[in-house]
């Protein structure tokens, strides 16, 4: 299914939202995520707002584009205070001289309080992402529902609440449509995942909407466990992904394994002063941990980035967000919308092998 007005959508998405303007090039000031989730005219809209707000809140710290002015202010105010108190809590600092041993605890408690405040106030420190919100039929500035609005001559829907204008073609997953559960490939737990791998990825589709992205490890997991005929398509996809970064993974795993074994050997012969000569058990533990970590790196998807997954999945006409089959309207390069999750992707032109 192609998106009408494709060139206009892509132009405004790439050039406009970087400067936070609507589709008529007017400046917009998106509301905070906390304000956005409080709206909703009925239960269905409120549920969509809550789900979208929770997801944006979770990924917002990784995306500087969602920062509000208060986010940077909180960081620049909090860090100097912590540094000042840490310097004053040294053995000769005035805080220790004033409070004694308790002077060492104040910087730690203050840092913990700031972290807790950031966690609790995260939805207020970040604003909504306009293309992502508009795709679900809500205004990208104030969050007002765009349902039942008639488009103007330039195909824009003008929000009656704030006056911002958004192209009708952006709405690919309206909140008033029948609820659909989006199932995405999930990856099994793996060792040392917290060190090298993110539990989830997000990316921007062809309309610059933020959407969840399938991780390389999920592709590998589905390909290795494929048993049904419908799942066999994942094997050639992983066969194209696996060689990417293989040299880097090999070098990294060798360095990790060799480093751990070398440290344990040097400790056993007394070269490393932190390990006593008789501590064979500690040396074996370090060696085993290094080998396991090296094996996890070699078998994982380190150095495979999200862009690689998107490129290969779209070449196989699969949605990089939910893995559903994408249907193109022509053999040339085309932007299509996924009927399963509403995200939009540019499919490459078919070569002679696919015709």
Describe the model.
By secondary structure, the chain is mainly alpha-helical. The chain folds into four domains: 6-65 and 126-170, no CATH class; 69-124; 193-243 and 304-354, no CATH class; 246-299. It contains 14 helices and six strands. It has helices at residues 6-15, 33-37, 43-59, 69-88, 94-99, 105-120, 122-125, 130-134, 193-196, 216-224, 234-241, 246-268, 280-299, 306-315, and strands at residues 156-158, 165-167, 201-204, 210-213, 334-337, 344-347. The strands form three sheets. It has a two-stranded antiparallel sheet. β1 and β2 (165-167) form a beta hairpin. It is flat. Residues 1-18 have low confidence and may be disordered.
The total domain count is 4
Oligomer: single chain
Q: How many individual β-strands?
A: 6
Unreliable residue runs: 1-18
Per DSSP, the total helix count is 14
- Morphology: flat
Strand content: 5-15%
Could you spell the SSE succession in H and E letters? Answer: HHHHHHHHEEHEEHHHHHEE
Mean pLDDT: 78
- Strand order across the largest sheet: 1-2
Distance between the termini: 19 Å
Q: Which percent range fits the helix content?
A: 40-55%
């Amino acid at each position: 299914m192609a998106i009408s007005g494709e060139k206009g959508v892509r132009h405004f998405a790439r050039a406009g939202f970087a400067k936070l303007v609507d589709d008529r090039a007017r400046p917009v000031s998106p509301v905070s995520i906390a304000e956005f989730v409080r709206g909703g005219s009925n239960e269905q809209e409120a549920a969509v707002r809550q789900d979208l707000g929770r997801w944006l809140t979770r990924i917002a710290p990784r995306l500087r584009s969602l920062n509000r002015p208060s986010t940077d202010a909180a960081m620049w105010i909090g860090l100097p205070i912590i540094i000042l108190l840490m310097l004053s809590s040294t053995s000769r600092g005035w805080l220790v001289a004033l409070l004694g041993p308790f002077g060492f605890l104040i910087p730690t408690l203050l840092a913990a309080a700031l972290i807790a405040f950031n966690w609790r106030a995260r939805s207020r420190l970040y604003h909504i992402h306009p293309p992502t919100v508009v795709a679900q039929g809500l205004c990208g500035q104030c969050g007002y529902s765009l349902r039942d609005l008639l488009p103007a001559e330039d195909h824009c829907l003008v929000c009656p609440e704030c006056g911002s204008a958004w192209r009708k073609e952006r709405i690919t997953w309206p909140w008033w449509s029948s609820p659909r559960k989006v199932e995405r490939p999930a990856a099994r737990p793996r060792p040392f995942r917290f060190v090298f791998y993110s539990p989830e990825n997000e990316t921007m589709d062809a309309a610059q909407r933020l959407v969840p992205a399938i991780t390389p490890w999920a592709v590998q997991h589905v390909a290795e466990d494929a048993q049904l005929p419908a799942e066999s398509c994942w094997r050639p996809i992983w066969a194209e992904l696996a060689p990417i970064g293989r040299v880097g993974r090999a070098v990294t795993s060798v360095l990790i394994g060799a480093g751990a074994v070398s440290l344990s050997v040097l400790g056993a012969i007394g070269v490393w002063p932190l390990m006593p000569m008789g501590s064979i058990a500690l040396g074996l533990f370090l060696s085993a941990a290094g080998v396991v970590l090296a094996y996890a790196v070699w078998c994982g998807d380190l150095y495979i980035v999200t862009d690689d997954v998107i490129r290969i999945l779209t070449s196989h006409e699969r949605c990089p967000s939910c893995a559903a089959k994408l249907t193109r309207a022509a053999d040339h390069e085309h932007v299509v919308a996924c009927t399963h999750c509403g995200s939009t992707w540019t499919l490459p032109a078919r070569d002679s092998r696919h015709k």
